[in-house]
Amino acid sequence: MSEFNKPLITHMYTADPSVHVFEGKLYIFPSHDLEHEATNDHSGQKYAMKDYHVFSMEDIGAPVIDHGQALHIDDVPWATERMWDSDVGFKDGKYYYYFPAHDKDGIFRIGVAVSDKPCGPYKPEPDFIPGSFSIDTAVFADDDGTQYIYFGGLWGGQLEYWRTGEYIPFDGETGANGPQGDEPALGPRFAILSDDMLSYKTKPQEVLILDENGEPLKASDIERRYFEAAWMHKFNGKYYLSYSTGDTHFICYAESDNPAGPFTYKGKVLEPVVGWTNHHSIVEFKGKWYLFYHDSSLSGGVDHLRCLKYTELEIAPDGTITTVKPYGN
Ligand code: FUB
Prior knowledge:
Blueprint: E1 13-22, E2 25-33, E3 51-57, E4 64-72, E5 87-91, E6 94-102, E7 108-115, E8 123-124, E9 138-141, E10 147-151, E11 189-192, E12 205-206, E13 209-210, E14 228-235, E15 238-244, E16 251-256, E17 263-270, E18 280-285, E19 288-295, E20 307-313
Parallel strand pairs: 13-17
Antiparallel strand pairs: 1-2, 2-3, 3-4, 5-6, 6-7, 7-8, 9-10, 10-11, 11-12, 14-15, 15-16, 16-17, 18-19, 19-20
Bound molecules: beta-L-arabinofuranose.
């Protein structure tokens, strides 16, 4: 279909799509990339975003509506910079916006903001979620009503600093204090959200991703190990964790019988795109499955100026996903 694989939003730069069906429509919660002079380093300082806009589509192929600014960093008392990949959950008539940002000490934390409508505006809580850290939130509501939040990202996302459960920053190249070689790679973290959706009911735990022999993926397995951009979907009763491999630029996925894992690596969802980052979400809408992702094609390849795209996703009855080649064969 012709609307697929083209920039979905062209009046501003957008990235990191989190997509849900709310009120019978597709709601898109992306990052809002800003134009500025950029320094390339492993800390991700060029991703200097300050606000979020919410978008919706009535149907596949329908115009994308920009509902305007839903949240700005100036309205978040604890946050100083870098509003990165966010996601929105829903419970009992209210919408909850989970977003990462640097706190006053330059530590990534996760905040929550609340609205009666998916498009906002959202009112932030005065402080970040206690015990929160790192980046890239994804909310998953299971059929039994349990609400999970997944998060975590390497390098600029600071997950290595929390390797022991305590914040231990490393003065040097980001990532150098993470696992190396044959050591198990770091997995994303998850927590169950509290009944009021404003905090974590459980302490964040690591999600294990295993190889075909039941061994944790190794840190050196850089084409398969977790880097950032966790997303969860459920298909025929099984749970699928998909994620970016960061410096090798794939979106991969792994399967489990349990949303807490362990997950077993299954394959690739999306091949590398134009630009360094690769980031996605997977959503079912009107009986079909879609992959939303981004690339840097709209800006002519500038890493931190990205645009959203989407395509239909082929999923076999056993959950196997046909790898998307974003620019054809
Ligand atoms: O948009 C900033 C960061 O780039 C996200 O948090 C990562 O997932 C990557 O897409």
